[in-house]
């Protein structure tokens, strides 16, 4: 059985979606990052970057959400292009685009919009601009085809879905209206029973909700240290 280390953030939910779509047996193991579970020696042995998600599949350990998606898709033969490998280049390109562009810029847009201390107009504007720019590339792709790889629902769509759920928090409540093709894909995926199960997974465990001093120290130690120095 696959051990799945997770919380309710965008990257772990991508993996939850795949596991539910593929019907794989897995054990969901909560990593409460507000409580600092990610910094324990036991978890760092699984992911030295102290992030979620990670999986252990027998004697194989994998971290980074898109690496996990690719591993699971190739292991099961599910949610990959059906053209005999001709689209593998596009599969890898879009997976890496999400990993290196969508995720980082979306995450920083959220951070500087909601969590960074003080006024950071340049940082807020820069990351908001880059988040919008990257999501427009996704929108343009989906305006030309039903899914990111054309006619097949794939792990790339799952990877996009994980972060797209946070667009209102990232760029404002009405932001999704600017991405109608992405909204169409989101509605389709959200209607799938596997997505409902993935989204409800964090309800099984008592993750800390309060964003208190301990949570700040565990998530943003530089902010905590700066506060303590004052």
UniProtKB/TrEMBL annotation:
<protein>
    <submittedName>
        <fullName>Glutathione S-transferase family protein</fullName>
    </submittedName>
</protein>
<feature type="domain" description="GST N-terminal">
    <location>
        <begin position="1"/>
        <end position="80"/>
    </location>
</feature>
<dbReference type="InterPro" id="IPR036282">
    <property type="entry name" value="Glutathione-S-Trfase_C_sf"/>
</dbReference>
<dbReference type="Pfam" id="PF02798">
    <property type="entry name" value="GST_N"/>
</dbReference>
<feature type="domain" description="GST C-terminal">
    <location>
        <begin position="84"/>
        <end position="206"/>
    </location>
</feature>
<dbReference type="InterPro" id="IPR040079">
    <property type="entry name" value="Glutathione_S-Trfase"/>
</dbReference>
<dbReference type="InterPro" id="IPR010987">
    <property type="entry name" value="Glutathione-S-Trfase_C-like"/>
</dbReference>
<dbReference type="Pfam" id="PF13410">
    <property type="entry name" value="GST_C_2"/>
</dbReference>
<dbReference type="InterPro" id="IPR004045">
    <property type="entry name" value="Glutathione_S-Trfase_N"/>
</dbReference>
<dbReference type="InterPro" id="IPR036249">
    <property type="entry name" value="Thioredoxin-like_sf"/>
</dbReference>
């Amino acid at each position: 059985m696959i051990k799945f280390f997770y919380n309710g953030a965008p990257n772990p939910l991508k993996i939850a979606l795949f596991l539910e779509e593929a019907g794989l047996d897995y054990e969901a193991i909560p990593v409460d990052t507000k409580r600092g579970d990610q910094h324990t020696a036991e978890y760092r042995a699984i992911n030295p970057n102290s992030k979620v998600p990670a999986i252990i599949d027998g004697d194989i350990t994998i971290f980074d959400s898109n690496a996990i998606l690719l591993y699971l898709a190739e292991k099961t033969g599910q949610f990959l292009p059906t053209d005999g490998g001709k689209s593998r280049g596009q599969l890898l390109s879009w997976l890496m685009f999400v990993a290196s562009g969508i995720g980082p810029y979306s995450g920083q847009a959220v951070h500087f919009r909601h969590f960074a201390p003080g006024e950071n107009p340049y940082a807020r504007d820069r990351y908001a601009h880059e988040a919008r720019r990257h999501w427009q590339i996704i929108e343009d792709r989906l305006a030309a085809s039903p899914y990111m790889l054309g006619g097949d629902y794939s792990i790339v769509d799952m990877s996009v879905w994980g972060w797209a759920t946070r667009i209102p928090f990232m760029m404002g409540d009405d932001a999704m209206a600017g991405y109608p093709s992405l909204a169409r894909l989101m509605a389709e995926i959200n209607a799938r029973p596997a997505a409902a199960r993935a989204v409800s997974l964090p309800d099984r465990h008592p993750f800390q909700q309060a964003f208190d001093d301990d949570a700040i120290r565990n998530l943003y130690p530089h902010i905590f240290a700066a506060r303590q120095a004052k």
